[in-house]
Amino acid sequence: MINSNSEKQSLNNISLGEGVKIFDFVNAYGCSIDDNSKVGTFVEIQKGVTIGKNCKISSHSFICEGVHIEDNCFIGHGVMFTNDLFPRATNLDGSQQTDEDWILVETFVKKGASIGSNATILCGITIGENALIGAGSVVVKDVPANSIVVGNPAREIKKV
Q1: What are the φ and ψ backbone dihedral angles of 131, each rounded to 5 degrees?
Q2: Above 70 in pLDDT, residue 19?
Q3: Report field, pTM of the whole predicted structure over 0.90
């Protein structure tokens, strides 16, 4: 199910499960979104992204290529994922970089994890099952299952 008209969305080559809700001004391509998940307005979901069942992706979030979100996850407003450890626009010779000039680094968000609004998730990490990322945190390393992390850089403050 898509909650808006096609003039307010750009949805190309996506796989949707049953009961998926996608709101206005979403740009999604080459990704999959499983059953009963919701995607808020002004979200971009790039190719190769997988989103599990019963997830909530809040508005203004950016989910880039290489991100894998398992079932029952919450992604707050304005969450930003990255997928490149050394981002550059050009090569040393000044030529513009292409897909062959960088290495995709994947990120995994395990079942039941929650990421607070405006968090930044650097690539190459795993956020464990049922972990909670505080709003505004910058996550630079793996987050253990059932833990709460906050701050910049994000540090564990307790177990759930």
Answers
A1: -70, 155
A2: yes
A3: yes
